[in-house]
# Entry
Amino acid sequence: MRKLLVLALMLLAGAAGAQESVRLKVMSFNIWYGGDQVSFAKVIEAIRAADADIVGLQEPDGKTLQIAERAGYPYADTRRHIISKYPIFDSGAGETTFTGAPEYSVAGVDPDAVHAWVMVAPGRVVAVANTHLSSDPYGPELARDGATLNDILVNEADTRVSEAQALADGLAPVVATGAPVIVTGDFNSPSAADWTEAAVAARGLPLAVEWPATGLMTDAGFADSYRAANPDPVANPGITWTPGRPVGVMPEGETLDRIDYVYAANATVVESTVVGEPGGPDVGVSVTPWPSDHRAVLTVLDVVPVEAPALITTEPRPVREGGDLLLRVNVPGGGGWAGLVVPRGAASDTGGLIGITDVTLEDRTTILFSTRGMAPGQYDAVLLTPEGGELARHAFSVIPADGEARLEITSQQVVPGGDIALRFAGAPGFKLDWIGIYRKGDPSVYGYLGFAYTGARHEGEILFPAAELYEELIPGEYEARLYFDDHYRVLAIAPFTVTAE
# Structure
């Protein structure tokens, strides 16, 4: 009886609070190549000083989980590089199913599952995405060097506009529902609202430009939160690039701009400030020494979260053979549920490897399993009704206990002008894990002859079309290298020989 009464009160409270606003602090922070360039400890200090509820990280280089733990954030999404004080759920299948080559801005996730759901109130969520757009060729430097307005816009169209479009397209259906949608990111482009004629006169900018990548975001219904809170680009330029590299060292001729953002749709902007070095322009929260080549952005939003759909997620991602697997769920309305683990793609009514039944959200929202006895491979965690109806599923992988990544060439023969087929397994599944093709033993990590992102998958196959390599491979010795999250930490190497036909 007590349980039924408590559950009824929870449902009534949820109904009463359905339209209640929640105040969120959101931070966007490019930490500069893993946060090690100045001081990783200061990166953690900066995040703690900002005290944001949700942080979108750029350039974490595989350190998202480490940053979350050190900074005191219990939840992390390694495919989107988001850390949060609130539970995070995937909006998609849990692993990439898209077989094409996505834009850099949405790498690692499916084009229709760009965002994560963050549960900021019981049973109620906001959508959060995090991105990083390509840096080169950099528009403000073209402007500095005398490029015409047309040349600048053509360059933007060839680089960042398509990336911003992919992001906006992926989020448009969510925005249309009225759900709050938050986007953090380093766009490597000034705001469409900043390079005005008045700013040209005040800041000495080369010319007025309505930058199209960021303009596309506002056209898609997103408020540029810093500019919404600080509408005068002359009085508050909000410069995030750059405080100097490493600290106070400014390259000659460096351009200075606001290129880091917290965008919000279906939300109210309360305030926004820059996080950076003490005394920096428009800096409202400071740490010394400042540890990054970007200043961060901190925005306060009021949001009305929407009712969460049926959701299930697993942690960690991936899980090592024999390790513990945490399964976390949400059931709309707080009803009963059952959890099940099955081989990837298997029907839930065929029986599971491990599972639990007759649970309610009042009892628990998470279950801890052991993967002992489960072979390395691909699995699904399935959320069921007590009657056995499937509500949602989430893909995860069990990797070998030794934790070693594996890479092999699957092409029977590689010839000049031929494609290269590979298979990988045991990858960490970070947003920007990648594979490069090199001459055997090339000591330069920048010497790749072609590269491809893994789609944040733990295992899979990749085909390198010969036409997409930077040069035709001549007969000789080569190797493929699996790397860690847009970094140059080698996880596995697969040698191969190019032979004459």
Notes: Residues 54 and 155 are 33 Å apart (CA to CA).
